Amino acid sequence: MTGTALVPRPSPAPAKTRAPLGRHRLADPAVGVWLAAAAVTALGWIAVAARGGDFLTLTNVVGILQNSVALGLVAVGQTAVILTGSLDLSVAYLISLGTLVAATTMENGSVVTGVLAVLALSAAVGLANGLIVTGLKVNAFIATLGTAFILRGWIEDNYTGPAGKVPASFQHLGYDRMGPIPVSLFLLLAVTAALWVITRRTRFGHHLYATGGDEHAARLSGVRTRRTVIAAHVLCSLCVGAAALFLASRLGAGAPWAGTEARYDLESIAAVVLGGTVLAGGRGGVVGTLGGVLVLAVLDSVFNQLGVDPFFKNVVRGVVIIAAVALYARHGARRSA
Amino acid sequence: MSTGTATNAAPERTTKAATAPYRALARTLGTGAPVYALLIVLLLALAATDPGFYEPDRFLAFVKRAAPLVILAAGQYLVIVCGEFDLSVGAIVTAGVVAAAEVYGTHPGAPWALMTAGLLLAGAAAGLLNGLITTVLRVPSFITTLGMMLILEGAVFYWTGGSPQGRLPEDFRRLGRDTAFGWLPWAVLACVVAGVLVALLTRSDFGRTLVATGDSERAAHLAGVRVRRVRVLAFVLSGVAAALAAVLVGGFSGVSAQAGRGYEFEAITAVVLGGVALGGGRGSVVAAMAGAFSLQALFTLLNLQGVSGALESTVQGVIVITAVGLGAADFSRLRRRGHPPGPPTAAPPAPATPSRTHREGHPHDPQP
Q1: Helix, strand or coil, per DSSP, at residue B225
Q2: Hey, what's the torsion of the CAs at A22, A24, A26, A30, to 10 degrees?
Q3: Cα separation of B239 and B18, whole Å?
Q4: Phi and psi (nearest 5°) for A7?
């Protein structure tokens, strides 16, 4: 995993990166966040062991991985949008609506129609976000916040509580395991791998980075920046749709609070930034994001094991997020927003 | 500020349609013109749906309800115009309300003035922390204030064990509830005073350096602006504004864990509705406060129209997107192509919104 982060990135001064290779690697946020995840795990292990517990049991590790699937899917999608310098705040309500649509269509139809319905809904929302941002030139923050409000109204108007039912065959996605590894983890890895290939190995991916780095320059050099931003939004929403499908399969029904309770909007952005992707766009990637998600999940698990007050967890979370990003900033990654 | 951009753009944009009075009007209104139009439309619509709306009592009640959002928007303006975000204001409101109740629980006799002052000071401290983390540690303010939001909410609930209890005594709630001179709600007075203070502040040297910092940090720095200090001060003032809003909200509705939820997004929406560019450097605080009034007018109108609570947020979303989209639209392009520029009320914003490439936006029209 860490190896992928060493791909040459369009960062300044590639010439002198050769000599102090070790330091350069550490300064790369995508590497740093995985090291941080390892460090947090080690600290957690020590803390739990000091209390006579055992942190690194197989069930616990598997639990951590399983818990990071939903946030991971959203955050990986969010990465694509943030790379272009945009933002998506509508993900939380899209997840809620996605679980509801999945469960209600699957109740009377087949699993396939349910999946297709959710993906179609996601693509439509992503397209709308992209068009509002690029076509109406509404700032992404406001545009996606507006979409979030629209989705919220739709949910609250049509659903009063949990709705629909997911067939048992679909619950395999949420609960089955191959050996010790949950199936859903493969979903996350597959989506991440796909996004890694798209962002790092395709022309569209280079356009994502170029658009986020300097939109004006990108357009002048022939990148269709509008299309790129729209496509990024669609891609993000499709990932969110996948997260909704996973959550529907876990919950067995659609839940209007599935996305908002866990604050996937802000948490996913936090994970992306923890993973070293610059909020202003143009730098970072999905590998780091996955590391960011892992850090949050490990922290969560450690707190649970230690029986820390759930509200105090939030305090520590806030401190960790700020501290981690402050560390990157010290490494000279120039901040532009 | 907006005046500067309007004059800069004038030579290029001066078409036959943009006559002198238009330009004078546009200069006065700045980039806020669309929000004033929106506010007028909403207020007219309110008068049409509810003939009694402009009776003094009811109108003052409307302003009173809008007061916390207006104060938050004024604070948020200061932060946004220098190129940052403050997502922690909602949490500061919640924390303020809950903390006040908690302190009153242990010291029932605390004088309200002391308590209010303490809250304002605490808000300033939270803002100071936001500002220092953002400027010294160079954490993007989106993350700083998001973290602060998690910290404050977590801390407050940890302190109260999850369910905030206690009551705020009447004399503390007076600022949010009662009226001065028998007719003027204290909240309205607070709102007006805060609004005037912030408006004066933006016309002072501090205000100018603030906008200059948001426009171009480097240029401001080279011109001798202490960029960090200016930004930290903006965060401090935003924190104080949030604490003041907390006092009002506590007076309105009492102690609740939901007291400030969503206020941060509403405040940012209000500021952007007022034509202030996210990313900084452009827009006026009066327009931002008008944006807050517009939002409140919109909520009131939706209520009066009997739109169900659920659909209310849908309508709100659509209107916010449309309004901001209209504000971003460059009507001068239509004019250049020879189409009539639409109703004259829509024309003034054009000269004042030159297609400047600001960092956050999507400048698609090529710079000539």
Answers
A1: coil
A2: -130
A3: 41
A4: -60, 135
Structure tokens, B133: 């983390």
For the beta carbon of residue A130, count every other beta carbon within 10 angstroms.
29
Strand residue runs (E) in chain B: 179-180, 184-185
Rg of chain B (C-alpha set): 21
Residue of B nearest to A329 (CA): B138
Residue numbers of A between 247 and 266 with CB closer than 8 Å to B: 266
Burial of A112 (0-12, 13-18, 19+ CB in 10 A): exposed
Cα separation values, B166 from A327, B97, B105, B156, B270, Å: 40, 11, 6, 13, 32
Encode chain B (368 residues) as per-residue pLDDT tens digits: 344 444 444 444 444 455 666 666 666 666 677 889 889 999 999 999 888 888 888 888 899 899 999 999 999 999 999 999 899 999 999 999 999 988 888 888 888 889 999 999 999 999 999 999 999 998 989 999 999 999 998 898 888 887 777 778 888 887 777 777 777 888 888 899 999 999 999 899 999 999 999 988 889 999 888 889 999 999 999 999 999 999 999 888 778 877 888 898 899 989 988 888 888 788 889 999 999 999 999 988 988 888 777 788 888 889 888 888 877 766 555 544 444 444 443 333 333 333 333 433 343 443 33
User: A149 — contact with chain B (CB < 8 Å)?
Assistant: yes
Give the span between the Cα atoms of B156 and B90, in whole angstroms: 13
- Contact in structure between A213 and A228 (CB atoms under 8 Å): no
What 3-state DSSP class applies to B355? coil
Beta strands B184-185 and B179-180, pairing class: antiparallel
Q: How far apart are CA B259 and CA B280, in angstroms?
A: 29
- In angstroms, the CA B6 to CA B12 distance is 11
A133/B contact by beta carbon, under 8 A? yes
The string of pLDDT tens digits covering residues B280-300 is 788 889 999 999 999 999 988
For A334, the closest chain B residue by CA position comes to B138
Question: Do residues A173 and A187 touch, judged by C-beta distance below 8 A?
Answer: yes
Instruction: Pick the residue from chain B with its C-alpha nearest to A263.
Output: B150
Tokens 């996210």, residue located: B278
Residue B358's CB: how many other CB atoms inside 10 A? 18
Task: Using a CB–CB cutoff of 8 Å, tell me whether A51 touches chain B.
Answer: no
Q: How far apart are CA A331 and CA A313, in angstroms?
A: 27
- Using alpha carbons, list the distances in angstroms from residue A66 to A243, B6, B81: 12, 55, 42
Per-residue pLDDT tens digits for B181-193? 777 888 888 899 9
